Amino acid sequence: MSNSQTILDIAEICAQQGVNKLILSSGSRNAPLTLAFSRHSGFCNYLISDERVAGYVALGIAQSLKRPAILLCTSGTAVLNLGPAIAEAYYQHIPLLVLTADRPPEWIDQNDGQAIRQRNVFENHVKKSFEFPVSLDHEDAKWQIQRTLNEAIITTKIGVPGPVHINIPFREPLYPDTDTPWKYHKKVQVVNFRQTKKDLSQEQWISLKEQWKCADKVLIVGGQGTLSSELTTALENIQTMAAVPVLGDAVSNLHRVNGAVTHLEIILGQEDTKLVGLCPDLLITFGGAFVSRNLKMFLRKFPGSIHWHVQDSEFPPDTFKSLSDIIPLDPDTFFTNLKKIVPPMQGSTWYQQWQTQEARAGELIQEFIRGEDFCELQAIDMVLKSAKEVHLHLANSTPVRWVDLIGVAPETSEISANRGTSGIDGCTSTAVGHALTNGKQNLLITGDMALFYDRNAFWHQNKLPNLKIVLLNNHGGGIFRLLDGPRKQPELEELFVTKQSLSAENLAKDFGMKYLYCNNAKDLTKNLAHLFEPYDQACILEIELPDNMSDIYQKLKTCIR
Ligand SMILES: Cc1ncc(C[n+]2csc(CCOP(=O)(O)OP(=O)(O)O)c2C)c(N)n1
Questions:
Q1: How far is the CA of 477 from the centre of ligand 1 (A)?
Q2: What pLDDT digit, counting tens, does each position of 247-263 carry?
Q3: Lower CB count within 10 Å: N or C terminus of the chain?
Q4: pLDDT of residue 4
Q5: Sheet harboring 128-131: ordered strands across?
């Protein structure tokens, strides 16, 4: 049974559907599929023993290739360890095909090893869950499996992309006899989904035009998204043509839109009296999560009277509690076609106001950093200034916040961060997934808790010469020293910061990575040059940081207000 044709057909269908990146964790129950995929010449396999890491590596691979990656693991708690990455993929709209091997259904809850309730186990964080029949060789079972697999693969990609789970029970024997013939049949069912290029009807465009004409202050705000040259051009055209401000924080990847307003945390951190003049009439949003807390507070306090959200299908989140219109198109198409209805406008005080705020905010943060002692902000600013043309990966907690505050250079190729669920558990593994498949120079900026939490991201045989890591080691969750709530508690250091004394030197040694260390600006300058030199494995630059950020941050907040 283990090399039944049905199982080989599963691999063949995935290959013909172009879903050929397999992230695999070892085990016996998944052996039939492990062998079916690894003996097929059409797959690129990544063997990752820690399933939690495997999940995030697959997320990084699917994100960088913009197509589904396959996750395959054995039964039991191995399955649950895929959960964190699946939730992140769900909220970041990343396509994953999750295949979990399982015990035969009659053995669940019968004290059999590695047997848990896997059916629909991810139902709250996947687009759809399926289960294959346990008997594989009946003609109808073969058809059901082939049809369901096609549906699952297509469902990961259409509309808002996301993870799809197939639970696959297997009976023994799991391992093939060595002499059994092993042949992949090209003639399998492969369903082709004919994508349509959607657009709004003429009437819809006319009604939007009416709304636009009634608005004096139109504001375009982008949430998390990947870098798109089509979107960058379309937004630049609208901005110039109609003098409309385009706002986006670090993870929106709008840093290449010339004139985009990106220092949102600083501009919108001012007193309310200074913000009233910046309130929109018509708010247009698109994309995913926002890093900037002040942006969220500002648009919830001063929402536009009309709020269009652009997202291809399904009911989008109402992040600013003001949603009035859903535009079911992908942002590239919408903003490219928007010029059809936008009345041209030569400059406007509204537009100029935002440009002035942006310029002042950029100067303010640079001036502030220059005036401070060596600290996280200064260190990150130096790293960003030395990192050209890199794909930037930002760990959650303060790294993504500091980069958002400082702003990134247009040369930066792309920015990724797990802002779907903002966990600190898979930031490194996701960057590893990108580095394994994007062929670019990758730079991860991470805190110490996030790096040591995810150190198994390096526990595999894949070399990562194009991955550079900057570790900001403040020996604990430094963010808790900045937040008003925890920093006033006597238990701050013990229960929230959870001080830790680790350095990354042993980690680098364990996994054969290049290790650099510094604890002041002068040495940081020297080491940054070394960081970007070529090595045959990943390189970690550990920056030991003084515990001075809490006071500096309070000073900065006052300065902004
Ligand atoms: C999986 C997970 N567990 C706990 C948290 C809560 N949390 C948010 S930030 C943080 C500390 C992160 O510390 P570090 O990575 O060192 O960054 P720093 O705060 O020092 O910048 C924690 C524990 C989380 N976001 N994700």
A1: 6
A2: 999 999 999 999 999 99
A3: C
A4: 79
A5: 44-47, 21-24, 69-73, 96-102, 163-169, 128-131
Instruction: Determine the angle formed by the axes of helices 31-38 and 5-16, rounding to 10 degrees.
Output: 50
**31-35, 161-165, 336-340: which range is least confident on average?**
336-340
Q: How far is ligand 1, taken at its centre, from the CA of residue 422, in Å?
A: 9
Tell me, what DSSP letter sits at residue 120?
T
Domain annotation for the chain: domains and CATH numbers:
5-169 (3.40.50.970), 202-357 (3.40.50.1220), 372-560 (3.40.50.970)
- Which residues have C-beta atoms less than 6 Å from ligand 1? 396-399, 422-425, 447-450, 474, 477-479
334 has pLDDT over 60: yes
Ligand 1 mean position, distance from CA 448 (Å)? 9
* 52, 479, 481, 553, best to mutate for ligand 1 pocket (most atoms within 8 Å of CB): 479
| Most ligand 1 atoms within 8 A of CB, residue of 402, 403, 449, 472 to mutate | 449
Task: Kindly report the backbone phi and psi dihedral angles of residue 22, in degrees, each rounded to the nearest multiple of 5, phi listed first.
Answer: -110, 125
- Atom 26 of ligand 1: nearest residue by CA position: 423
Q: Is 143 left (phi over 0), alpha (psi -120 to 50) or beta?
A: alpha
Number of the ligand 1 atom closest to the C-alpha atom of 395: 15
pLDDT at residue 3 in the model:
56
Q: Does residue 527 carry a pLDDT above 90?
A: yes
pLDDT band at 346 (very low <50, low <70, confident <90, very high): low
- Residue 485 region, left (φ>0) first, then alpha (ψ -120 to 50), else beta? alpha
Q: Are 261 and 354 in contact (CB under 8 A)?
A: yes
Look at residues 441, 364, 372, 430 and name the one whose alpha carbon lies nearest to residue 396.
430
pLDDT in tens, 511-523: 999 999 999 999 9
What SS3 class is residue 492?
A: helix
Strand runs (DSSP E) across 240-318, as ranges?
A: 246-248, 282-286, 306-310
Predicted pLDDT at 523:
97
Of the chain, the end-to-end C-alpha distance in Å amounts to: 69
